[in-house]
Amino acid sequence: MTTPRTLFDRIWASHAVVERDDGYTLLYIDRHLMHDGSAGCFGLLHERGLPLRRPDRSFGTPDHFVASGGAGPLEPLRRRALEQMTDNAARHGFTMFDLGDARQGIAHVVGPEQGVTQPGLTMVCGDSHTSTHGALGALAFGIGQSEVAHVMATQCLWQRRPKSMRIRIEGRAPAGVVAKDMALALIARIGAGGATGHVIEYAGEAVRALTIEGRLTLCNMSIEAGARAGMVAPDEITIDYLRGRPYAPQGADLEKAEAHWRALVTDEGAVFDREVTLDAAALAPMVTWGVSPEDALPVDGRIPDPAAAADQAAGDGMRRTLDYMGLTPGEAIESIEVDRVFIGSCTNSRIEDLRAAALVAKGRKTVRPAWVVPGSGLVKRQAEAEGLDAVFREAGFEWREPGCSMCVGMNGDTGRPGERIASTTNRNFQGRQGQGVRTHLVSPAMAAAAAVEGRFTDVRRLLA
Ligand SMILES: CC(C)[C@H](C(=O)O)[C@@H](O)C(=O)O
Ligand code: SF4
Which residues of this UniProt protein bind [4Fe-4S] cluster (predicted)? Predict the structure, then answer.
């Protein structure tokens, strides 16, 4: 009998070109995604006079530097990065979803949307949130600049084999509890370093019940638990999602691919280095209160007291966090007022995210500045076809252009010092959304609720 294998084992084994004695494996890379930040690595290729090894397996789209307020003037550095990417697409012949093309958007939204992301593939991008693509059963991870250049030149990458971890989310999530809440509750439980060095496979009834969009959110945040990658084994939901997507296999190829995808499972009895189980029924909408994604609480929670911390160092750290965040121990999450709301990012800017936010916004009025930044031009178009833009606009939200925008502010979209932002993004680090800005991570519906109430509000009350 053969040893039971995990989904990860299968993909790793089928892509290993060489295994070295020192623990490194040369992996074949099926897809390389580029954004306007990582495409700068072409410089490293040009220095050596090398061609792009596989333009047909390379895809790019600008996202970090693009203006979200329409065709505003970009300052020279960002403009040059965007122009260079366009030039490199022409010079090397990779597929580029450029500005002005409705397919342009955040790389991690565009890949799945176009069917570039597929089960069983290895995928890399010079971006930490590449873990997102694992939602379709791909092994996808972020890489550094020299690694990007290595992939450009060779279509291969040296990697140490990561450890494996299975996270089962069992039972059914209550109404109003979504993938974002699962991700935050999980990170609160295992810690921001809880999955360091591991590839996570998400399993269990609540994960199976998620749509692809929910799985994308969940896998997106794997990196915030320290994981190398996150993945969900492909199933009928995955196959339905991929059917008809432009870069997915078609016709007879699709039939062959489907048979292959269905075999991408974790065998009964396969052993993981670590297993964690979460009960979905016990979850609530989550809000972060600190400067790490692990600082997350159910919306009915209260700000923790540093005096009750495990030790002196933890207490001191918590005091510094609360000082930065402008919060007091014991304060109820629902009493915290927000200054601004941001709905967007590769975590939560897909059509289902916008629908969930619009459901809350409908017939209400924002009492704070609130932005909606769709993840791609196609998401924007779809939302407009459904009238969601009108719902948002009538409620007072700003309806903006696709890109990373205020998730990281690399395009200049930042909050003001001291501002408190309810944000559907994945990182609440100090200064992430602008110097001195206080970020609270929430789901799209919770963000919309904060926009219309001016404070964190259990969205389940608004939807009741
Ligand atoms: C700019 C980019 C390399 C960075 C990342 O690696 O994730 C960004 O996307 C982020 O989310 O912080
Ligand atoms: S949306 Fe945010 S997290 Fe995602 S790639 Fe852009 S900056 Fe990074």
Answer: 346, 404, 407
Give just the sign of the alpha carbon dihedral 291, 349, 36, 243.
Answer: positive
Outline which parts of the chain fall under CATH 3.30.499.10: 7-275, 290-463
Cβ–Cβ contacts within 10 Å for residue 239, how many? 18
Q: Is ipTM strictly over 0.95?
A: yes
CATH 3.30.499.10 is right for the domain spanning 290-463: yes
Ligand 2 centre distance from Cα of residue 165 (Å): 25
User: Atom 12 (ligand 1): residue with closest C-alpha?
Assistant: 408
Decide: helix, strand or coil at residue 355. Answer: helix
Q: Whose CA is nearest to atom 7 of ligand 1?
A: 128
- The fold of the 7-275 domain, in CATH, is Aconitase; domain 3 (3.30.499)
Long-range contacts of 241-250 (CB under 8 A, 24+ apart): 241/112, 241/136, 241/211, 241/212, 242/115, 242/118, 242/119, 242/136, 245/113, 245/114, 245/115, 246/114, 246/115, 247/59, 247/114, 247/115, 247/116, 248/115, 248/118, 249/118
Q: Which two tokens stand for residue 449?
A: 């609720």
What are the pLDDT digits (tens) for 370-404? 999 999 999 999 999 999 999 999 999 999 999 99
Ligand 1: distance of its center to the CA of 399 in Å?
A: 23
Q: Over 90: is that where the pLDDT of 73 sits?
A: no
Q: Which amino acid is at 215?
A: R
